[in-house]
Amino acid sequence: MAKAKEMEVERGLDLNRYMGRWYEIASFPSFFQPRNGVDTRATYTLNPDGTVHVLNETWSNGKRDAIEGTAYKADPKSDEAKLKVKFYVPPFLPIIPVTGDYWVLYIDTDYQYALIGQPSRKYLWILCRQNHMDEEIYNQLVEKAKEVGYDVSKLHKTPQNDPPPEGDAGPKDTKGLWWFKSLIGK
């Protein structure tokens, strides 16, 4: 196997252009997302203080699961697209802050699709402004991930319905049970 390139991130990310809704096309399965989640998406909104409000949503067993957090530049003086994202868990009783890396490894010039990762290479997301992506573009992003050392065999395509759910459609999981189930791999 060829040695992976050093992980580089985008520079000069325009946060204003990055705001809005992004659909998860594929990701590495993680303990903090329901295993059977569909229509997974993230909505980013710029806060007055320059941080970003994060709303992650997915639908599992017909219910909408959501968690809100805040993203901010890891180094405010750097032009690298290295962000930190902080969520409080469990979502139904937000008391424990959990912070993770959110590195924009690639974004197209029109801000329509992106490759998101982090330095340990345990997490990877392929995002798109639409809830579907051209297979050729998808394969190019997978190749970019492979070049920087990701084991792309772990990628799981996220089922997306057409049309996607509107707003916060569907009953909410108000008990936060999805969070506990995700911890035990359900």
Tally of individual domains? 1
Assign the CATH topology: Lipocalin
* Strand count: 9
Supply the number of helical segments: 3
Mean pLDDT reading: 87
Q: At the first level of CATH, what is the class?
A: Mainly Beta
Instruction: Just name the CATH architecture.
Output: Beta Barrel
Largest sheet: 8 strands, antiparallel, barrel
- Identify the CATH homologous superfamily: Calycin beta-barrel core domain
Organism: Punica granatum
Protein name: Lipocalin/cytosolic fatty-acid binding domain-containing protein
Region (Disordered): 154-175
Domain Lipocalin/cytosolic fatty-acid binding: 13-160
Structural account:
It is a single chain. With 186 residues, the protein is mainly beta. The protein has a single domain (15-162), classed as Beta Barrel (Lipocalin), CATH 2.40.128.20. It contains three helices and nine strands; from the N terminus they run H-E-E-E-E-E-E-E-E-H-E-H. The protein has helices at 15-18, 135-147, 177-183; strands spanning 20-27, 38-46, 52-60, 63-73, 82-89, 96-107, 113-117, 124-128, 156-157. It has an eight-stranded antiparallel beta barrel. The longest helix is centred in the C-terminal third of the chain and has 13 residues, at 135-147. The chain is globular, with a radius of gyration of 16 Å. The termini are far apart. 28% of the residues are buried. Residues 173-186 have low confidence and may be disordered.
